[in-house]
Amino acid sequence: MPTQWAQELVEHFRISPRFQEPMKLHTSLRVGGAADIFLQPDSLAELKKAILFAKKYNLPVTVLGGGTNILVSDKGLRGVVIKLGPFFNKITQEADGKLRVKAAVKTSSLVKRAQELGLSGLEFAWGIPGTVGGAVYMNAGAAGGAFSNLLTCVQVVNNEGELEEYAKEKLSFDYRQSVFQGRQLVITECLLQLEPCSPEKIKEKMMALQKKRLCSQPSLPSAGSVFKNPPGNFAGLLIQKAGLKGFAIGDAQVSEVHANFIVNRGNATASDIYQLIQLVSERVKSQFNISLELEIKILGDW
Ligand SMILES: Cc1cc2nc3c(=O)[nH]c(=O)nc-3n(C[C@H](O)[C@H](O)[C@H](O)COP(=O)(O)OP(=O)(O)OC[C@H]3O[C@@H](n4cnc5c(N)ncnc54)[C@H](O)[C@@H]3O)c2cc1C
After folding, report:
1. Which of 9, 42, 97, 285 has CB 3.0 to 4.6 Å from 85, enough for a Cys bridge?
2. Residues 78 and 96 both lie in one domain
3. What spacing in Å lies between the alpha carbon of 138 and ligand 1's midpoint?
4. Cα dihedral 261→264→270→275 (10° resolution)
5. 208 and 94 in one domain?
């Protein structure tokens, strides 16, 4: 990387830019090679600088939340990786049950805060790891709930570094799908509409869901469900029926607890996980003639 780039960046960011940053430190699967340039913008102005820097040198941009739904190649990520800094970790209560939430807030912190404030609607998300930016992008959901049901507005920064608002009529979502996927946008903030309820009742719901989750999900490093459930079916069930529960390539294993999770037993590489994903897809296709669609996002070159 040209030294001129490093100098240009170091001057402009409160949190020092990092070069050749190992992505395995930033992903829940604990795999992934180095990112060329890793920036943690700590204001909207710094975010704009990061985006314009990438544009100036024609570098690809990858946005990272908590890294809990991605598989990053062992070869790492070229260009600029943006992980929002502490400025983007803020929740503000507004009138009539609304919460304004910045994108780097952890989903677990948001759910806890809503519970304390006596605002119901987010209980389903108790136990979903990662950040609110990632949850909006993925339309994260569980137990019949999803972020899309609560969002009334989303603020993004576009590839010109300009702020844009997606009001309700511009927002469209589907199962683990949002209007933000496949676009060069950084989600910076959202507005959620919640309903008043007693904190005790909210806590009860959260605890009941947590109990279910603890029994049905592995504790080893993973990225959650690898595949989306096909219409009228369950990816985990199909994988189990294909005889792949517990099947491993290196230290990447189809979880013994939930067959739609791939876990890292310790020293898996991204390539082990990638090969296992392909093998699972092929087996399910050949046995049931069903093409499984990925839920996790696969990043980098393979
Ligand atoms: C144990 C476990 C359990 C899980 N359970 C669930 C579950 O019940 N339901 C569910 O839906 N998911 C679940 N997940 C998956 C994952 O936690 C969610 O999808 C989560 O919302 C992803 O958030 P993140 O911040 O980690 O996103 P990341 O993994 O960092 O990123 C995911 C995608 O979002 C993009 N992105 C992230 N932040 C931004 C941003 N600010 N602006 C633009 N793009 C952005 C990334 O580029 C990437 O494409 C689980 C994962 C694990 C490990």
Report:
1. 42
2. no
3. 6
4. -60
5. yes
